[in-house]
Amino acid sequence: MRTITRVKAAPHGHWVGDGFPVRSLLSHAADAEAISPFLLLDHAGPHVFAPALRPRGVGQHPHRGFETVTIVYSGEVAHKDSTGAGGVIGPGDVQWMTAAAGIVHEEFHSEAFTKTGGNLEMVQLWVNLPAKDKDAAAGYQTLLDAEIPRVPLAEDSGTVRVIAGEFAGAQGPARTFTPIEIWDVRLNPGKHSAFDVPDGHNVIVVMLAGTVEVNGSEIIRSGQVAFLSANGGEFTLEANGDAKLLILAGEPIDEPVVAHGPFVMNTVAEIRQAMVDYQDGRFGAIAV
What we know:
globular
């Protein structure tokens, strides 16, 4: 059985732009080896916004060298980028943006959500790219809720939405550069289930709401993160009440990580080149 190596306490929150009150539950700056191939995870909300006249959010900004995965639980988020892609994602939908060689994008509340206001909750995960793929073409995947497989757990224990990777024979729709699993999990009160991922993969349990007991030994609560051993087979989760969580796992990328703001590369020289390329307009522009 996989063992818990550490439980990370819930962090304090901060704002990203004026539309996303977040807690950074994962960060490569603190836990690079334990979370590779992932880099960062921000949990935004839940937060109730009043109706407004203009959309709140984050204006145009660049990225290079990794991917962003946005999972919406409530509310709506509108996206535009320099590849010409864009659209609105709502509850259950996932936006998978590959920055790779360079992209410029913006993220705001949708026009409809801005007018009505309401509860916003979402997660944004950053996924690293190996050196050989950091200069791949930028791209975008819209993964609608209806396209994401839902797998019922045994004995009415809950459900798993398979966003990436494979679970119980169901394959997630996301196209990935390295082997990863992103499972959006709901557990019912008093129920427990076993989960397994390939040996050698880092495994992270991210609690978004509720409380679970891991391996019958340690409790993790909302906002906390449990890091599990990379080997040892399956692990178990038991919910005390309704629980919402993410299970993230993946094959580590054994390469240097050099990050500066919106750029994640392998060397300082590559970071400097990313800045020059962005300033020279090589990331493209968002169509008006």
